[in-house]
């Protein structure tokens, strides 16, 4: 199974040419944070500890199944800077009209991922902005004393990665601001699960992912 490479796949389609993405099936998807920034928490001793933003990532993932009747969620995991999950798209067969409705562009895997990204960005942005307002930070990232925000240099580049556990650190918020609230990379990795063996292997990969974080390709701290 091909691994997602942000440099190879940058601004290019990762999908299978000619495949009908509105048909029923199982999909293994990976969404990665912009610049692979660690925004969702930290892993200690093989256990993922979500911060507030990580919990939002989980909540909105589960909410996807609630707002889309044709979606069933299988194994998933939110990591410090990405999320892995298996999404199943189903189509009812009771009515041809219903089937036609579910095959609209809004029911494709791309639309599901896009909706998830929008929902998480909206909630996280709201929290960061609310924190700024409560602390008197202006739109330029300076506090009321005119001091530069910590963790970001004059060019807006990240100086270090956050090590948040259960509460987002000020650094995590500054990283999100420096990314101009672009929480996610533009593209996402997608793999169609075609048989039971692949389903089992991918499910185990997702479950074991936190334990393998030290060697994870997305880990900026390795």
Automatic annotation (TrEMBL):
GO molecular function: sequence-specific DNA binding; transposase activity
Coiled coil: none
Gene3D superfamilies, sorted: Transposase IS200-like
Xref: InterPro entries: RAYT_transposase, Transposase_17, Transposase_17_sf
UniProt GO BP: DNA transposition
Record field: compositional bias (Basic and acidic residues): 132-156
Region named Disordered: 132-157
Annotated Transposase IS200-like domain residues: 22-209
Protein name: Transposase IS200-like domain-containing protein
């Amino acid at each position: 199974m091909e691994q997602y490479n942000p440099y190879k796949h940058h601004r290019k389609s990762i999908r299978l040419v000619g495949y009908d993405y509105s048909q029923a099936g199982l999909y293994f998807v990976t969404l990665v944070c912009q610049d692979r920034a660690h925004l969702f928490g930290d892993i200690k001793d093989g256990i993922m500890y979500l911060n507030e933003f990580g919990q939002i990532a989980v909540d909105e993932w589960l909410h996807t199944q609630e707002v889309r009747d044709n979606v069933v969620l299988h194994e998933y995991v939110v990591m410090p800077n990405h999320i892995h999950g298996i999404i199943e798209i189903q189509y009812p067969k009771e009515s041809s009209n219903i089937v036609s409705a579910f095959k609209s562009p809004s029911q494709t895997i791309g639309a599901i991922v896009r909706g998830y990204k929008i929902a998480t960005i909206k909630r996280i942005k709201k929290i960061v902005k609310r924190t700024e307002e409560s602390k008197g930070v202006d739109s330029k990232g300076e506090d009321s004393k005119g001091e530069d925000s910590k963790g970001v240099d004059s060019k807006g580049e990240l100086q270090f990665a956050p090590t948040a556990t259960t509460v987002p650190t000020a650094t995590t918020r500054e990283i999100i601001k420096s990314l101009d609230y672009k929480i996610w990379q533009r593209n996402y990795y997608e793999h169609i699960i075609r048989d039971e063996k692949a389903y089992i292997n991918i499910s185990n990969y997702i479950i074991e992912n936190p334990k393998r974080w030290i060697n994870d390709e997305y880990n900026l701290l390795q």
